[in-house]
Amino acid sequence: SEEVDDSVDEIAARNENLKPEETKKEKEKEKEKEKEKEKEKEEEEEVSLAEAAAKINLPHLTVYLVKISEMYPMLPEWQLIKFVDYFGIAFCDVPFSWPEMFNNPPLFKLIDVIDVPLSHIPESVYKISVDWIQRQKLNTLCGFIWWALNKINGCLTELRGGPPHTYRKSQVSLFVTSAMVLRGQPSALARVLPPMRFKYSRYRVADQLPVTVWMIAQASRGDLFMALFTWADTLLPAVDTNPQSQDLILQLVENMLSQPNARTILVERAVFEDHGVIPPFSFESLLRLTFPDSSARVKATARFEAIYPLLKELALAGTPGGEAMKKGARQIFIFSLRLAGEANPVLAKEATSIAIWALTENIVCCNHWDNLYENNLKASVALLKKLVDEWKDHSRKLSSSRSNTLTLNQTMKSFRLKNEKAINEGAANASLYKEADESCKVILGRLSWKSTAITALVLAAVVVVLAAVVLSFKPEATTVLKKLLDSWICTYTSMRSPQLCI
């Protein structure tokens, strides 16, 4: 009986030990059920963005915007915060349904998100809001964009499992108001992103890139030129070997260039602004991405090749003879001369062509060329040879004035002195100097012939005029001299503008 009692006691003891564990499990199950009920209740209370936006009272919104402008006239930043708060209240029951969109770059398709979230906002609400935004100072809006970008990225970081973010108001309102500001005043983003490129590289990493792309896409709906300039200035130099990053950056520019009348809008604006849409340092990045070494080609290369002709045109666009155009030509010449000497033949050929364009746009590039000549001898040989081969195409611009002709003449003479010195000293690359010297001789000969021919024609014309005066009493002689003079004048004119004598 004692043994039976002992076994009963042991069983009872074990049961006692099990009770707390079972109780704990039951409590956990109850908590899970409560959470599920709360979640179901929240889902029942949730409304779509379109439904919430449709409930916005337009007169109330109008009065509210006037009120905050009057209440905080000296605090424009606070006005924008109150603007966000208004939509935060309006969208408090709207779930933030876009983290998945931004948190999965491989699945990110710009065409699917470019109109998110404004496609759900009534046009009347959007118009009233943007009209108010456009009355704000640009510096204030720049500060807002900076603030919003940090908040949005902070929210997304938290949703990825990162540290909790301080912003606890409606995340939907952040996206809505940011999109409105970006479309209403795109130049604000153009001012904000470039400094971020240098100070905060995190805005270009894969996790942050979708939001940056989305923001530039919003700006493109308001100002295509400014958005493309921002893309080229901020994202193009940041293209790396990551296929996902390349795809996002290409999606954005392809979308912008496919907009109706994009080329016409961009070229005309470039002429008006007196500078290309693609900054020179970004243009160099574009060249390297479009013309990589044959062994370095990737899937994205073909996409860059497809858009390169238009982007090149936009990079070289501007007002001919304008100061900004001349400055850009100098910068383009320097890097294109360097690229023209690289081992990649396709890249070198394109760079050589661009370097000659820069010379024809700004003859001052000859001075830079003279300084860089010996360190870029291979490229210089290619440029000189191309100038000789295509002299008819470029001579009119290169010698369009006496000053231009003199500058080019002096540059060729300077090259010849350098060539002669290197050849006499038996330099290792003497053969290149000899090749360059042959081209310099040809160019100098053509410049000299033109100068001599023009001088001779002018003197001949003077002689004819004097002879005409002397022989004016003989009508027949005067007629012959007049025809001869006309012929010489036409010859002289054809040197400057051949089409005038056709």
TrEMBL record:
Residues 11-40 have a biased composition (Basic and acidic residues). The keyword Cell inner membrane does not apply. GO terms for cellular component: endoplasmic reticulum; Golgi apparatus. The chain crosses the membrane at residues 453-473. Residues 1-45 are annotated as: Disordered. InterPro entries: TMEM214. Keywords: Membrane, Transmembrane, Transmembrane helix. The keyword Transferase does not apply. This is Transmembrane protein 214. It comes from Arabidopsis thaliana x Arabidopsis arenosa. The lineage of its organism: Eukaryota, Viridiplantae, Streptophyta, Embryophyta, Tracheophyta.
